[in-house]
Amino acid sequence: MCGIAGWLRAGGESPELVTLARMGRALAHRGPDGAGVYVDGPCGLAHERLAIVDLDGGAQPMVRRPASAGRDQPARDVFALVANGEIYNHQALRRDLQRRGHRFSTRCDNEVLLHGYVEFGDDLPRQLNGMFAFAVWDGRAGRAMLARDLAGQKPLYYAHLPDGSLVFASELTAMLEHPAIARRVDPRALSLYLTYEYVPSPYAAIAGVRKLPPGHRIIWQDGALELSRYADDPFERARRPYLVLGEDELVEALRERLSRSVKRRLMSDVELGLFLSGGLDSAAVLAAMAEHVDPRTIQTFTIGFNEPSYDETRHAAEVAGLFGTRHQVRTMSADDLLDLLPTIRGWLDEPFADPSLVPTHFLSRFASEHVKVALGGDGGDELLLGYETFLADTAARYYRFAPTWLRRQLEQGVARLPVGPGSFPPGFVLQRFARGASATDAPSRHIRWLSSVLPGEADDPLRGELRAEVSRAELERVMSEPYARYEGLGHAQRLSAMYFASYFSNGILTKIDRASMAVGLEVRAPFLDPEVIAHAVAMPPALKLRAGLVTKYALKRALRGTLPAHLRHRRKHGFGMPIARWLRTALAGELRRALAPERLRGAGMLDPVVVTRLVEEHISGRRDHRKLLWTLLVFEWWRERHDVRL
Predict the structure, then answer these.
(1) 274-284 pLDDT, tens per residue?
(2) Strands 43-49, 326-332: pairing kind
(3) Which of 1, 2, 136, 250 is catalytic?
């Protein structure tokens, strides 16, 4: 797990070493165990290393001569690599490559990428089971290949410059160290961010920069760039469902695949642990870990809050007690939030407004005091239909049978309900449901349930001329396109594909990567093993969302006899913090400072009249604007930190 950066220069000149070094230093938090820079002809690479496998022999940039190269051949007759991530099937690949005549000099998993490129060429990413973003330079052909893993666990930004050069990095902050990247916001990305609370791929917050989409690769040669998808679409497997396996066999197959995935993710030369939330997914990962190692040696980590509606420590402790793990708990307070904010603002490379980023970072800091690798339960909700919005979708389809006049009256009444304190209070939940329930299509419903604000709404804080940069159709395409792509599949399968391609890839995985890598902690997701993904998406929808009412049914079945019923069927809690209350108390002063009218007028992006109203309504308690105000606050922190302008 590391940070990578590079500059492939068109026109024959070599990249400037000082620029590459600056780009690398901007990623130092991702790799505290070593750093390196490599320049050869038009290729420049930088690497910051977090050492997990082969602590002594895995330094990068990694450079190898082809097997046939002699000592007197020119320096450019080499292959060079920078990689971020882990290759879980590297041992099997290594054995295969050795049989083909390749000779390895390290035990590092990433060395198989160099030899694998020599053997498989552009087909290399299809051979990999892992989370990765890497670049391989082929000095013989003067070309490079960049690739990103199937789910998008590891980030990769790039900019194809007007002169044909290619600049890339793990984080946007490193891109800003290149002189050709101007610190100017992309208005389209800003509009998308205010709706979704993240900047969706392929957009990036900085104009001229893009994200490499998950499962894609770039081929660069002589200034020309070719972008293509290399990975098979896992949701296409759902078009060919299992016909010969019964329910019991499918459930057992899910359990077995998750167990094998966890075993693969136990590879490490350093200590590892588990994020244990008290929810179903992390408990399932722990159960699989206990099949392969003594559970008494497993370190589990949980954080809690003094506000009971946000706290899951009791449930996590019960799960840990069932297995006898070395369980550790820490409580997060408003004071901790204030202490963390300067640090978070320092490494926030792109606006990202999911409030759970903060407790995830707090948990990562806590775990990093004891381990360098942690497993987590991410991916289960998307693949096995675990979100409350899937239940809301079932309710909404019945709700729409009610007469229009009755729905209008209900929605007006719900809008007047007080929103109490706590995590998802009834008033907040009903208002969010009413916001999207009457929409005629599924993507529109879910966009309204998840979004901070939609264009043209009374609370829309973006200046009108900037909103005009993105059409409503283009904005909604983030979720509508993946839903439409699978026409012919069942509704539940299409919802799963929609969430996986949008909210999960751009939101959840971004949160995990940034929050953990800021403290040099690697987080692994067993649910994202290609074998688990393929099985999960191909299972009949009724095994995931039973009768539209029971979420993650197959996983609950798989854990019978392992977890008691009250833990298996406990309502999904989510992982948040008391942001509504803290915005009225501990953060009220910062809210007024960062969103002060004079600051907003100077930046020219947000409407100071609308934003001031939102701030005062929330602080006074007249309305609950927690989602939108946090989204605006994070954006202003990011803009201020990086001195970004229109």
Answers:
(1) 999 989 999 99
(2) unpaired
(3) 2
